[in-house]
Each structure stands twice: as structure tokens, then as C-alpha cells.
Amino acid sequence: MLLQSPRHRFNAVLVEIRAATPPAGGFELDLYTAMTNKASPRTDTTYAFDLFSDDEHRPVLDAFLLSGATFDTITAVLGIPVSVLTIYEYLFFDVSSFRNRLEKISYASTYVGSTFAKELLKTGIMVGVDYLIWTYGGKEDVDTRLVVRHTMVDAYYRGMAHKGNSLTSGVSKESQKWWGTAIKNAEILEKMDPRTTKQAFEELRIALETTDETTPVEQSPVSLEDILH
Predict the structure, then answer these.
(1) pTM for this structure?
(2) Separation CA 217–CA 220 (nearest Å)
(3) CA-CA distance, 111 to 135, in Å (whole number)?
(4) Helix H or strand E segment including 174
(5) How far is the first Cα of the chain from the last one, in angstroms, to the nearest whole number?
(6) Which of 86, 95, 117, 132 is deepest in the core (most CB within 10 A)?
(7) In whole angstroms, how far apart are CA 205 and each of 196, 199, 210, 211, 212?
(8) Cα 223 versus chain centre, distance
(9) Is 40 exposed, middle or buried (0-12, 13-18, 19+ CB in 10 A)?
(10) At 193, is the secondary structure helix, strand, or coil?
């Protein structure tokens, strides 16, 4: 269970607005001013608040931050300045509130928002930042070897689901299919990215050539005649 919400600073500002007691300063005061004064100037804080206030934008930013994406990555994909992201994380999504990955997964599962928002956060934390980057057009090229390798690993572990079930159970039969996929992908990967003995031999040959400690006959401390006799 979370000790505090990642939105704890925003919630504190809401309390101060209801009590009409402005914060001492910092981003909190900027947010207080933006939320209570319609004529407040446009700043990075108001930009961050605009993102938070949008039901479509908020879960996207939350998903990126929850999955561990860096500010530079988010800027490259979404075009939001780092200065704005810094304020957004500080006021609206304090990642340091999560003590471990389990709390992040639980938060994603109970996220307040649309079904799409919940799935976005859950997939982001379970699959990783690359999924979010791909979803929002930040990465189109995928290494074929990476696809085969990930599919192989996923199929292998899905095949492990048979443990604890009888050999004739539906789960065990399904596991055999997954393992068939894993083996097939392993064979494909070996052809695409071979880890052959030829390569190992070549590396060994180079290593031996650079560390050859044999002594030529001309430099032998014992004469050739003595060796022959």
C-alpha cells in the first residue's frame, strides 16, 4: 500500500485553496496562483497544469513517468519541454512515492481513469518504456533479432505454466504449443545471430597469436646439437 499518493503536492495545494492560505513559495505557489487567478501569466507551471487537467494527456504522462522514462525520452517523443516535465512530476506525479515495482503495478491496476488509461499504465510498467515510445510514434524500426528473442523468451515462460498440472490437462497441452514456438524461434535466432564454434575458434586463434610464448630455435638457450643428442 502506498504511504502517500504521487499527487500529494497537488492535493496539498487543493487544501490550501479551500483554506485560502497561499503556499510559502515555489511551484506550489505558482500552481495556487494559476488555479485561483484566471488572469495568471502563462508559465511552465500553467503548462504542466494544462497537461494534468486534460483527461487524455494526464494518463499518457503518468504512464511514461511510471515506466521510468527519462525526461529527455519523453521530450523526444511527445515534444514537451524538460522544464515543464520537471514541474509536472514534482506537482502531479511524484515517482519517489513508489517504494517498489509492486506498488507501481498496483497503482496502474487501480488507476482512476478510462479503461484505455488503465491499460496504458499497466502495459507501460509491465512491458516497458519501448512500448510507450512505439505507441506514440517515437520508434518505428525494430531489430528483427529482438523480436525473435523476445517472442522466444515469452513463449518459453508461457510454456512453464504447465507446472502443477497433470500431463493430460488442457494447460499442459497448451504449454507444449508454446514450447514448440519457443524452440522454433530459438532455431531461427541461431541462424540469424549464430553463436558458432567457428567464431569461438577465431577468437581463440587471435588470442593465441597475440600471446604466443614459444621460443624460436635461434633464440633457444640450448643448442640444436645438444637437443638432438
Answers:
(1) 0.69
(2) 5
(3) 19
(4) helix 170-192
(5) 85
(6) 132
(7) 14, 10, 9, 10, 10
(8) 67
(9) middle
(10) coil
Task: Please give the C-alpha separations between residue 37 and each of 29, 41, 173, 186, in angstroms, as whole numbers.
Answer: 12, 9, 65, 62
pLDDT (tens digit, 0 to 9) for every residue of the chain, 229 residues total? 788 999 999 999 999 999 999 999 999 999 999 999 877 788 999 999 999 999 999 999 999 999 999 999 999 999 999 999 999 999 999 999 999 999 999 999 999 999 999 999 999 999 889 889 988 986 655 566 666 666 777 777 677 766 666 666 776 667 777 767 777 777 776 776 665 445 545 655 666 565 555 555 555 555 545 555 5
**In the structure grid, which three cell numbers stand for residue 52, read together?**
494534468
pLDDT, averaged across the chain: 82
Domain locations in the chain? Answer: 8-135, 144-210
Grid cell at residue 180: 514448440
